[in-house]
Design brief:
Radius of gyration: 27 Å
Number of helices: 21
Structural class: alpha+beta
Largest sheet: 13 strands, mixed
Helix content: 25-40%
Distance between the termini: 43 Å
Shape: globular
């Protein structure tokens, strides 16, 4: 996979910010790939005369670049293969990675497809779903009656569910209690994550989880089957109280028959067993070995792609780290190879075969689903879906009627043009100011049917890995925040449709609406300030010149930078002679990557930091972010974050959080995130107090640099009817149940 390095520019262009944002959805409390806008002129000028000349050159360059981009856009538009037809609605989107089931990469555009399919969230047969206001609702499309709950003497809580007896999967097979119990039983087993590479921790709130995932028990105590359409789930006392307790009653089924022909649920509902009378066949063994081979080959490919052998002149530490990673990899491969030739228990083999089929087959081709649409294909960055005749409808009783949906990758720069031409029908969640202006103008002039406007339920950010390289030091992260002018960036990118943020919040969140005004005055508002950045770096180990003993001199740096900014080579070092180097990886589709390279590296030089920016595909970015090496080359990434209910930062920032990709390990983070989630559901003020405390920690520790929370616009063509509802949590994949196609 080719990557290109973007070098520092001497132009006084660009504001320094990160993040990738483009007209496309959110990542369920994870990362999103979005595209930003062009840089504004830097308002920090050291030498007015010299910089004025540079700005003139830069403006001429911009005009040339703009003309080239217009030519490219015209060509792209002419080459675009329109898929619209009378029975098909086309939703434009940014690049998808092809993971259509939760637990692996979490690209927000994959998530959009999942929601059409019902493999995630509100369109699924989940027992509890979110409405357009973000409130939990019992999903009466699948429930025969409202769930009941009972407090137990040991502090646990049991929820009882009764589903309708006529529910069907997309292949016509019945949905039963077994399907609801199968998912937690399979995905909470001790070998699930090691075998599949999933990041899904399983049903961690259910009673008996620790014993089950730890291998101490082959039964899951908190699960119970009553009959074919009724079951119970008991939440462990250690997980209670939980502020968003309603979330704990959200149970999502999985089509067991889609990945296993011979597995069954024990009569008690707490264990996976082989179907009665099943005897392992040679065909079963071969299928199992084939699945292991697929996983082995994938692991080998991933290791080779992400762990290049160190060069001959690499440090002993780098070589040792590589050897350690290689040894762990080889041990994992050996374990899988041993399974191929060993004497595996038949039931265990069935279970592992189901896991392998889920990761190698269902994840990329979800053949059986519960949502409004079925999966047909994913080719050439285009997902084709067709109506699921067995869909029971959403919680409101609405059922999709448009025969086909295509979710198609388009160049975000020409997305509004394609919308105006009718080549696509919907372009969701546009965030760039100039493109929003174009969309609004197109609606006002009658070129498109209209648009929806709503506050974003998330924000743009620059995210760090906080336990390695230079970004392990809080002061380095804070210094980087002072190397950018976020206010100018927001104005440049969002064009008046966004505001700077200083914490982990979105302007649409109810907590921010209640306490945001008071909170802002307590948070550090990181602004472009080289003196402050320099002062912060003086508090890190990087206080010396290359000899590791002579104090680094800011005055000397200023003089050398003024004389020869391009050839500047006076950087900070620690006492062991390690240079202060920070490497950022950004999506090559994101203008933000260019924006960062236009300002941050130059500003960083002036405080003794070497700052490099590399561009590549968003899929590559996610690989570097999710699976960093011990001596990771890249520890800063262009990102965005979208919030889902429940808002529970423990998962992302607690030291034991399963989605702690920033590698945060701070006692205060553990304390504040635990306090939030453990607040009694009736104690709203107590929760808001804990939320404020968490925001203060986040603002200081800075696992990410929050950039802005902005307004989204979703546009649609004249033939789309019924897309008159959109909120921060309700996009086209949900409203599809109320849409029709007209002339």
């Amino acid at each position: 996979m080719k990557m290109k390095r973007i070098f520092s520019s001497l132009m006084a262009l660009g504001l320094a910010s990160t993040l990738v944002a483009c007209g496309g959805g959110e990542d369920s409390q994870n990362n999103e790939n979005q595209n930003e806008t062009k840089p504004a002129e830097n308002d920090q000028v050291d030498d007015q005369t010299e910089d004025s000349a540079e700005e003139t050159d830069a403006n001429e360059k911009d005009q040339t670049d703009d003309q080239a981009e217009e030519t490219d856009d015209q060509a792209a538009n002419e080459d675009f293969d329109s898929q619209t037809s009378d029975d098909t609605i086309v939703v434009g989107t940014s690049e998808m990675s092809g993971d259509f089931y939760m637990g692996w990469t979490n690209n927000s555009y994959d998530v959009k497809v999942r929601r059409f399919l019902g493999t995630q969230d509100t369109n699924s047969y989940q027992t509890l779903v979110l409405d357009e206001a973000g409130e939990w609702q019992n999903n009466m499309a699948v429930l025969a009656e409202d769930p009941t709950s009972e407090d137990n003497e040991d502090g646990s809580k049991t929820f009882t569910f009764k589903i309708k007896d006529d529910l069907k999967w997309s292949d016509g097979q019945p949905v039963t209690a077994d399907d609801y119990l199968f998912k937690p039983l399979l995905e909470s087993l001790p070998n699930y994550i090691p075998l599949t590479g999933s990041t899904n921790p399983g049903a961690d709130a259910v009673k008996g989880y620790e014993a089950y995932i730890g291998g101490e028990s082959d039964t899951f105590e908190g699960l119970e089957k009553i009959d074919d359409y009724s079951f119970k789930v008991t939440i462990d006392s250690s997980f209670l109280p939980y502020y968003e307790e309603s979330y704990l009653a959200a149970v999502l089924p999985f089509p067991m028959h889609a990945i296993s022909d011979n597995l069954a649920i024990a009569a008690e509902g707490n264990k996976l067993v082989a179907k009665e009378g099943y005897e392992i066949t040679e065909e079963d063994k071969n299928a199992y070995i084939e699945g292991l081979d697929t996983q082995i080959n994938k692991l080998k490919e991933d290791f080779e792609a992400n762990n290049p052998a160190p060069a001959d002149d690499a440090s002993d530490e780098e070589k040792a780290s590589y050897d350690e990673a290689k040894a762990a990899h080889e041990a994992q491969i050996k374990d899988l190879e041993d399974r191929k030739s060993g004497d595996v228990d038949p039931t265990q083999q069935l279970i592992e075969e189901a896991m392998l089929r889920q990761v190698n087959e269902y994840r990329i081709n979800p053949s059986v689903v519960s949502g409004p649409y079925k999966f047909d294909s994913f080719e050439n960055n285009m997902v084709k879906l067709s109506l699921n005749e067995y869909y029971a409808g959403n919680f409101r009783g609405e059922r999709a009627s448009i025969p086909k949906v295509i979710v198609q990758y388009v160049n975000s720069k020409i997305a509004i043009d394609l919308l105006e031409n009718g080549d696509i029908d919907i372009w969701d969640e546009e965030s760039e100011g100039p493109l929003i202006d174009q969309m609004r103008e197109a609606a006002d002039s009658g070129k498109i049917g209209g648009y929806n406007t709503f506050e974003r339920n998330g924000y743009g950010n620059m995210t760090f890995i906080t336990d390695r390289s230079a970004t392990q030091y809080k002061e380095v992260r804070q210094a980087i925040a002072h190397l950018m002018d976020r206010n100018t960036f927001v104005q440049s990118f969002a064009g008046g449709y966004g505001v700077v943020t200083n914490g982990m919040y979105g302007s649409s969140q109810w907590m921010y609406k209640e306490r945001g005004a008071d909170l802002e005055s307590k948070l550090t508002n990181y602004q472009l300030n080289l003196d402050q950045a320099n002062s912060l770096l003086d508090q890190t180990p990087y206080k010396f010149e290359a000899d590791g003993s002579t104090a680094w001199d800011k005055a000397k740096a200023d003089e050398l930078f003024e004389k020869d900014p391009e050839g500047f080579d006076y950087y900070r070092y620690d006492e062991n002679g390690n240079k202060l180097v920070v490497n950022q990886f950004g999506s090559d589709e994101s203008p933000i990557t260019t924006l960062v390279s236009n300002q941050v590296p130059n500003n960083a030089k002036q405080v003794g930091m070497e700052y490099n920016v590399t561009a590549g595909s968003f899929a590559t970015l996610l690989d570097y972010y999710y699976y960093p090496d011990e001596n990771a080359e890249y520890t800063v990434f262009n990102m965005g974050l979208g919030f889902e209910a429940p808002f529970d930062p423990w998962y992302s920032y607690a030291s034991e959080g399963p989605y702690n990709y920033t590698k945060t390990n701070d006692p205060k983070a553990d304390e504040t995130t635990e306090k939030m989630r453990r607040t009694d559901p009736d104690d709203k003020e107590g929760y808001l107090d804990a939320w404020e405390e968490f925001q203060l920690w986040y603002n200081d520790y800075l696992p990410e640099i929050p950039l802005y929370s902005n307004q989204y616009h979703s546009g649609y063509t004249k033939r789309v009817k019924g897309y008159d509802l959109a909120t921060p949590v309700w996009s086209s994949e949900y409203q599809i149940n109320a849409m029709t196609l007209g002339e």
